[in-house]
Structures are given as C-alpha cells and as structure tokens.
Design goal:
Isopropylmalate Dehydrogenase, 2 domains
Length: 348
C-alpha cells in the first residue's frame, strides 16, 4: 500500500521548495521501490485568502489521515494587517498532529566551511541536533491581551519535560552520547522544573549519556564561539525557536536547514526552517536544500526508510561539494535546476 503524503506548499517560496522536495522524493521512491501518494492542500496565508482560515477543516482532515505532512512555508506581510494570521495555522497543525518534538539538525558539510560567516576553523566538524519541545511554554500559555498590559504564561508539566528529555537522550545514544540542556533556571521557575526533570530522567535511565546544563544567554554565545563542541541540544519551546535560527547560519544559509516535528501517534510534520521569503517568491532563486533534507527526514522518521534518506543526503552533499548550488551560497542554479542536479546525483 502506498504511503499517503500531504503537501502544504503554503506561501511565498513555499510552493517552489515544496515542488523541489517532491521531485526528489519521487525520484528516490522509484529508486528504492517505495510507493508514495501525494496530495496538496491549502494552508497558511493562501488558505486565509481562499477559506478565511489558515487551517481549513478539509486540510486538517487530510493531515490527520496522512502518513506524513510536508510544509513549504507560511506567512508574509500581506497578512499582517489584522484578521487571522498564517502562523496560527502552524500552531493548530502541530497541536492536531500531536507533535511535541522538533528536530533541527545543523551540519557544516566537509569542504564547505568557507560558506559560514564564521571562520572555517570555528565551524569545522559542526554536526549538532537541536531538539525543541513544541507543546508547552510561553507560546501555549494563558494570554492577556491589552493596550496597557499584556502577558503570556510560560508553563511546563513534569510529563512534558520527561517526554522530550527521553527523546533527546535516545537520540544522543545514536550520535556522540552527549546532551546539553538549555534553560534559564537562575530566573524562571519553569526552567528550574525543566532542569530538575531532565537531570532526574538522565540519572534514572540514561547514565551512559553525558549531560550538562547551560543558561540560554550563555548558549547563544557558545553556539557562535564553539559550535562544534555540541551534540544534542535540548531546549524548551521559545528558546529552541530562537537558538535553532541562530545555529542555522553556521552552515552559511538558513536555506540549508531542515526540520522534523515528531508525534507519538502520527508520522509527523516536516519543513525547512526558513520563512516564506516573499521578496524572492516566484523568482526561482530560493535554496531548496532545507526542504529536500526535510524530505529525507520524512523518509527516515515517518516511513522508516533510512537507506532512501541517506541517498538524498549523500546526493545533496555531492552537489554542494561540487559547487552545484544556488546563488545565496555562491552558485548559479535556480531552485528547480538545483533540485534536478540533486536528483541526478541520487544513487550516483
């Protein structure tokens, strides 16, 4: 039976990078004898325009029944003038799928250290995984809206922290065996609970994994000063949102960074971490690597097709090392032609 993949191209460059990811998935699925069925649905700003809702019921139903969901990008200044916001659809989508763990790998490819804004010796060997909790924290806490006073409650339960901590320790066991937990325990009560629970989980069930705790402001500096020292970085929701965008520039372009949002009950949501970039939408110059590597994560985490995922990752690496890139990182390819170059290198 074919795996059902729902595509949500979204806004801005989203449709372009989604088409690139689909092209690579189609080639890889043929090469590895994997049956995939694709369907597209409105989501984000385009869904507001068409349905008055960033996450229409038809889209929600399709996503819930899918084996995996792939998202291009959402948002743009067009929808900043009041009314529903595209980003509200993203929060609703994550909640509907039950995704609680966002995985954002940051890799500086060998031989491509010069693309980084940092010195090559500082980023050489960077291969870290930021694991961000998605269902708790300030984004989902009780809110007070007002012209004179506004507030957002940051709350975490022990169960929420335990769940993401276990996933981080399991990931570390398959990597270099180290977890860095990020918090603000010197100021925030929610962070003090976070630190205690993460330590409890490690001491009880993962004594083989090294654990250290770093305050978020210090972590923001360390990611620039010594990024290669980190393996798995475990964070709460807002801290992870910020730090993962900071870390994405280490490799030279936010367009290179993929992500996966995983659930206990669903295959998950996969998306590049870049935004909708409306200023370059429709110009065929967006970097599709983040989207294509997100497609590789889809194959690995949602469908259990690790060999196919590695084939995509190897093809991307070969193209980048050969200088087959988009203009944002010094090449000449457009979005579509770069995807075609990657396709030509799959299983080459």
């Amino acid at each position: 039976m074919a795996h059902r993949i729902v595509l949500l191209p979204g806004d801005g460059v989203g449709p372009e990078v989604t088409d690139a990811a689909r092209l690579v998935l189609e080639k890889t699925s043929t090469a590895h004898d994997i049956a995939l069925d694709f369907e597209e649905h409105d989501f984000g700003g385009c869904a507001i325009d068409a349905h008055g809702d960033p996450f229409p019921e038809t889209t929600a139903a399709a996503c819930g029944q899918a084996d995996a969901v792939f998202l291009g990008a959402v948002g743009g200044p067009k929808w900043d003038r009041g009314g529903p916001r595209p980003e509200a659809g993203l929060l609703a989508l994550r909640a509907a799928l039950g995704t609680f763990a966002n995985l954002r790998p940051i890799t500086v490819f060998e031989g491509l250290e010069h693309l980084s804004p940092l010195r090559a010796e500082r980023v050489r060997g960077v291969d870290l995984l930021i694991m961000r909790e998605l269902t708790g924290g300030i984004y989902f806490g009780e809110k007070v809206e007002g012209n004179e006073l506004a507030s957002d409650l940051c709350a975490y339960s022990r169960g929420e922290v335990e769940r993401i901590a276990r996933m981080a320790f399991e990931a570390a066991r398959l990597r270099d065996g180290r977890v860095t937990s990020v918090d603000k325990a010197n100021v925030l009560a929610s962070s003090r609970l976070w630190r205690k629970v993460v330590q409890d989980v490690r001491d009880a069930d993962y004594p083989d994994v090294a654990l250290d705790h770093v305050l978020v402001d210090a972590m923001a500096m360390k990611l620039i000063d010594a990024p290669a020292r980190f393996d798995v970085v475990l964070t709460e929701n807002m801290f992870g949102d910020i730090l993962s965008d900071e870390a994405s520039v280490l490799a030279g372009s936010i367009g290179l960074a993929p992500s996966a949002s995983l659930s206990e009950t669903h295959g998950g949501l996969f998306e590049p971490i870049h935004g909708s970039a409306p200023d370059i939408a429709g110009k065929d110059i967006a970097n599709p690597v983040g989207a294509i590597l997100s497609a590789a994560m889809l194959l690995r985490h949602a469908l259990g097709e690790d060999a196919a995922a590695r084939a995509i990752e190897n093809a991307v690496s070969r193209c980048l090392q050969a200088g087959e890139t988009t203009r944002d990182i010094g090449g000449t390819h457009g979005c579509r032609s770069f995807a075609e170059a990657i396709v030509a290198n799959i299983d080459a």
